[in-house]
Amino acid sequence: MTSMSLAVTDGLTITRRNLIKVKRVPDLIVFATLSPIMFVLLFRYVFGGAINVPGEVSYAEFLLPGIFAQTVIFGSTITGASLGDDLQKGLIDRFRSLPIAHSAVRSRYRVSPMSTSSYPACSPRPSPSAP
């Protein structure tokens, strides 16, 4: 096997370890799924009538990109907290002592949050343009 294929295999193995953690702590999936839905419902239906947007533009056209950006930022804070927790517990030092590619440890913090946050994108959401 080439060094590139070994690095990809090592990265997938460490990413799999992190996804098992998500399976054992379902709060992460619940938060990633329910928070965007909750914010869309809250800002569209509860506060939507209080905000007047001038012109022909709908309030939902401003709302949905903002909720998307907010969801990405919240997901990155969870990733940062996970990284800090792993550094504090010494997990990163243990990974560095193993005969694996150094890029595999970094890929854990890139691939795993993408797969976790792609789950809410596949779940059904209420239509923001409904009255």
Can you describe what's shown?
This protein is mostly helical. It has one domain (3-50, 57-122). The chain has 5 helices and no strands. The chain has helices at 3-24, 27-46, 59-89, 91-97, 102-122. The chain is elongated and about 60 Å long. The model has no long low-confidence stretch (mean pLDDT 77).
Oligomer: single chain
User: Helical content, roughly?
Assistant: over 70%
- Average of the residue pLDDT scores: 77
Query: What is the tally of helical segments?
Result: 5
**What does the overall shape look like?**
elongated
* Beta-strand content bin: under 5%
Spell out the helices and strands N to C: HHHHH
Q: Report the span from N to C terminus.
A: 58 Å
Specify Rg, calculated over alpha carbons: 19 Å
- Poorly predicted residue ranges: none
Sheet with the most strands, sense and barrel status: none
Secondary structure category: mainly alpha
Structural domain tally: 1
Helix and strand arrangement:
Layout: H1 3-24, H2 27-46, H3 59-89, H4 91-97, H5 102-122
Question: Key features?
Answer:
single chain, 131 residues, mainly alpha, 5 helices, 0% strand
